[in-house]
Write a structure and sequence with these properties.
Number of strands: 36
Radius of gyration: 26 Å
Structural class: mainly beta
Oligomer: single chain
Largest sheet: 10 strands, mixed
């Protein structure tokens, strides 16, 4: 996740920028304003600040970015669409638009629709807004439908005090009623709140990943449903918009945030996070039927997750509605989840010869699980598996409807917390392993090849320890990317660095950060100790840190089983001085790794920049136009803009080349690479690839008769 926030409260005006989205498991963005109280003991809490991008300090216009309409469980609503989010941090308002997709700068494209404008014309009484009650049921977000405890907190003025009787009016304001704006309540620039940290998520048709009859019927139904774009906002709600028209299909106000909603209408309102975290989508078998599910996080707004049934977004109340909410009140190890959860199928056990499966939301515990808020725990990492089919009225019970896999304690003086996992599944889509890093630089592999509860079998130990050349831990805040390694196992690709709050933008605290590719083979015997950088091949950046273009060089070596090197690493140039770091996951394009880094400005309002790298994923070295690996070559560029999130990949059509005399045909494809920048999309060039197709070669089998008779007793030619 991108944490590229560089303005301070001292700046005369703070405007926001857009949030990009690419695929499930990638929620990209900027952190939102919340100051978390430190725990009574242990490491200090990470203060997640929501100051806007550096460009906002020099302009009064909102800063824009883009989000590609490629969905978690479906295809784009129309060929070539971008879903663009922008916001004005000072007014707390935002927009979501759908624009035609074009390479290069698309800032001038005319939107097909603007969801904020459509929402402004919707009568509040017609909006379909829901929340969850204490028994887990879904209820309309209307005064008479709320539980007495929810009515009571909405009737309290922000900051405490006696009930003032304004609860119904506050709820009406939250629903969009504007009659009391400028008098009793504050005046809004628009009804759609800002999405400082959130990114839009498009869901169209199903993923078509299973072959059973029940799933086939479910998939055919998803082809007929209304495609929707989902966006969390700091107006306290998760919104679902019709992808064709921009109209709001429904909204959800998480119950965990209802006690904080009375602050939103206050005339002296100070910006804070609400539904400002990542979204993810998947499919799960619930109550005897397949369903599409959305798993969302409030991010800095609260510690927890929520899950919704979005099988038919146009009839949300006709489905299962709210599946559940899970917070630090249910388990103290849950923190602020700043990266997307994932939906995965796990094998619980065997019932005779039949495996028993269950679908879960899988997430790291995130940040500040030890901070004193609703609950206080230890500053350790934990992987959570939350059953998506938990009945609404059933209480959360560990090892029954959720599982928690704790990582061993680390340095008690340093913040802990597990980042988002990357998942490895088998041919049937059943989870086998999960890889995730933590804030102390440890990369973990979680084994799910055995039966629940999956703890202590085998003993959990780090796969790798990320430390700089001086031995200092380097925080891992992004999910790794995974590719198959030569000789078996995987290469885990990830960068290091954190950029959550102001302290991490202070040049006095800059430390060298790196990008790593680490080999792991779950089938091999366990290593006696975690891998370290001395086990990896070093790659270098040649040139000065301020160079517009730069090269990468290193020894030709491929990592894998039985090889000298167990991966490769690249230190960012002059990281201790420039503060360059990797805070968003990379993308894989035609065997190449494409990622960007953030180079913070020298002060809180100074412009920041990004570097873009393109390397061969297996070797960490540059490649030429034909795809051959080079020991030295131009591979990156300094972008004078903050590039947000993972690159956006736009694969082109496959094109066959002329058939060779042997019958072999090579197929080529070009993939355009876009990055979402602060001002506009950044053209990242094109990645080309080719591979054989059709008949690969000729072989003469002179003794085919003999082979036939040997294979088929009594066989005849």
């Amino acid at each position: 996740m991108e944490r590229s926030s560089h303005a301070s409260s001292r700046c005369r005006r703070t405007n926001g920028r857009a949030m990009p989205f690419f695929a499930p498991g990638l929620a990209l963005g900027l952190c939102c304003a919340t100051a978390l109280a430190p725990a009574a003991s242990g490491p200090p809490a990470i203060v997640i600040d929501g100051q806007a991008a550096a460009l906002a300090c020099a302009t009064d216009r909102p800063v824009h970015g883009a989000a590609l309409a490629v969905a978690g469980t479906g295809s784009p609503p129309a060929a070539g669409s971008l879903f663009r989010v922008s916001y004005d941090f000072a007014s707390g308002s935002g927009t979501l638009t759908r624009t035609p997709l074009s390479r290069g700068e698309a800032g001038g494209a005319t939107p097909v629709w603007d969801a904020a404008a459509v929402l402004a014309g919707t009568p509040p009484a017609r909006r379909r807004i829901y929340t969850m009650q204490a028994d887990g049921s879904t209820a309309p977000f209307e005064w008479d439908s709320l539980a007495p405890s929810q009515q009571a907190v909405l009737d309290l003025p922000p900051g405490g005090g006696a009930a003032d009787g304004l609860g119904p009016a506050r709820l009406a304001w939250l629903r969009g009623e504007r009659a009391l704006e400028g008098t009793t309540f504050r005046r809004r620039a628009g009804l759609l709140g800002d999405s400082v940290h959130g990114a839009p998520l498009y869901i169209g048709a199903g993923a078509n990943r299973h072959a059973d009859i029940a799933y086939s019927a479910f998939y055919r139904g998803t082809e007929r449903r209304t495609p929707a774009v989902y966006l969390g906002a700091n107006d306290g709600m998760l919104h679902a918009f019709d992808a064709a028209t921009g109209s709001e299909l429904f909204a959800y106000a998480p119950a965990m945030l209802v006690p904080a909603l009375s602050a939103l209408p206050a005339p002296d309102y100070t910006h804070r996070a609400y539904v400002d975290g990542p979204l993810a989508a998947g499919e799960a078998f619930i109550g005897g039927a397949w369903r599409s599910v959305l798993v969302g996080s409030p991010g800095a707004g609260a510690q927890g997750l929520f899950a919704l049934d979005v099988t038919d977004p146009a009839a949300f109340d006709g489905g299962l509605g709210v599946l559940w909410e899970f917070t630090d009140r249910d388990d103290v190890a849950m923190g602020n989840v700043m990266q997307p959860a994932q939906v995965a199928r796990l094998k619980l056990r065997m019932r005779g010869d039949t495996p028993v499966y269950r679908d879960f939301a899988v997430t790291g515990n995130g940040l500040n699980s030890h901070a004193a808020d609703a609950a206080q725990g230890e500053a350790n990492g934990a992987l959570f598996l939350l059953a998506l089919d938990k009945p609404p009225a059933e209480r959360w019970r560990i090892d029954t409807n959720y599982y928690r896999l704790d990582t061993p304690p680390g340095d008690p003086a340093r913040p802990g917390g597990l980042a988002a996992p990357a998942l490895v599944t088998n041919e049937e889509g059943v989870l086998r392993h999960a890889y995730a890093g933590d804030l102390q630089g440890r990369l973990w592999r979680f084994d799910f090849t055995r039966h629940a509860p999956w703890r202590g079998n085998p003993r959990l130990q780090p796969v790798f320890m990320a430390r700089d050349g001086a031995g200092r831990p380097q925080p891992i805040t992004q999910p790794p990317r995974i590719v198959h390694a030569q000789g078996g196992g995987y290469l885990l690709l990830f960068g290091t660095g954190s950029l959550y709050g102001r302290a991490e933008r202070d040049p006095a605290g800059f430390a060298p950060q790196s990008y790593y590719a680490v080999h792991d083979d779950p089938a091999a015997p366990a290593r006696p100790a975690p891998l370290e950088r001395s086990d990896l091949a070093e790659r270098y950046v040649e040139g000065e840190a301020a160079d517009a273009r730069f090269t990468v060089l290193g020894r030709q070596a491929t990592a894998g089983s039985g090889r000298r090197y167990k991966g490769w690493y690249l230190d960012f140039p002059a990281g201790g001085t420039t503060g360059e770091r990797s805070v968003a996951p990379g993308a894989l394009a035609d065997g190449k790794l494409v990622f960007t880094t953030v180079v913070p400005g020298r002060d809180r309002c100074a412009p920041s920049a990004s570097r873009r790298y393109v390397l061969d994923a297996l070797t960490g070295l540059p490649v030429n136009a034909g795809g051959s690996v080079l020991a030295r070559g131009l591979t990156g560029v300094l972008v004078p803009d903050v590039v947000h999130g993972a690159p956006l990949l736009l694969p082109g059509p496959r094109r066959p080349m002329a058939r060779e005399p042997t019958g072999r045909v090579r197929v080529t494809r070009e993939t355009a690479i876009l990055h979402a920048g602060t001002a506009a999309e950044v053209d990242g060039g094109v990645s080309g690839a080719s591979w054989p197709a059709g008949r690969l070669s000729w072989r003469e089998v002179a003794n085919w008769r003999q082979l036939h008779r040997a294979a088929v007793p009594g066989g005849r030619p």
